[in-house]
Amino acid sequence: MRLKVIQIVLIFFLGLISYLYSLTVEYIGLERMTRESQLIIYGKVISSYSVWEDKSIFTYTTIEIKELIKGEYKSQKIVVKQMGGTVGYISQVVDGTPKLELGKEVVLFLRDWKGAYWIHSIVLGHFQVYEENGKKFAVNSLNNVGLVDPVTKKLITDVSKIENRFELVPFIQQIKNYAKM
């Protein structure tokens, strides 16, 4: 009986620890994210692989660029680096890291850091493109992260008030307008 109580308490604390350490990022709007990104692309995921680097797994995903929305880049393909992935039988999962699925179209806000392109604010700079009734939409799933209001510095509890679904063509135009500012 005592062993069972210890197991239950241990499970509770492990759950609490994983909750406390889940990813929390400051919510920033499109204007700021556009300003802070070196590149913004609309493209299609064409390949991906994961490797060990030191004691962590990183995933490298190649995107075929359909449209360069902001910045300068000479190739039609770009490689994006993300934390986490699977190598053999071992996986590392990082809360908030968007899954870049083969064959899917995406809009990515990218920052150059230490010689690699990373998605801005992990999840905030990733928009999956979907087609619905003949129209394309860019959607940010907010991928199970806590968002902090940049003004109040408090956790945003009602994420439904954050706009995260846009019709693709006007969305790209809005980003281009912000990039000119």
Description:
With 181 residues, this protein is of the alpha+beta class. The chain has one domain (23-180): OB fold (Dihydrolipoamide Acetyltransferase, E2P) (Beta Barrel). The chain has 3 helices and 12 strands, in the order αβαβββββββββββα. The strands form 3 sheets. Strands 2, 3, 4, 7, 8, 9, 10 and 12 form an 8-stranded antiparallel beta sheet that branches. A two-stranded parallel sheet has the order 1-11. A two-stranded antiparallel ribbon has the order 5-6. The longest helix has 19 residues, at 2-20. The chain is globular. The model is unreliable at 3-21 (pLDDT under 50).
Defining traits:
OB fold (Dihydrolipoamide Acetyltransferase, E2P); 181 residues; disordered N terminus; alpha+beta; 3 helices; 22% helix; single chain
Strand percentage, roughly? 35-45%
Q: Can you give the mean pLDDT?
A: 87
**Number of structural domains:** 1
Tally of helical runs: 3
What is the gyration radius calculated from CA atoms? 19 Å
In the CATH scheme, the class would be Mainly Beta
Which structural class best describes the helix and strand composition? alpha+beta
The CATH architecture designation is Beta Barrel
Biggest sheet, in brief? 8 strands, antiparallel
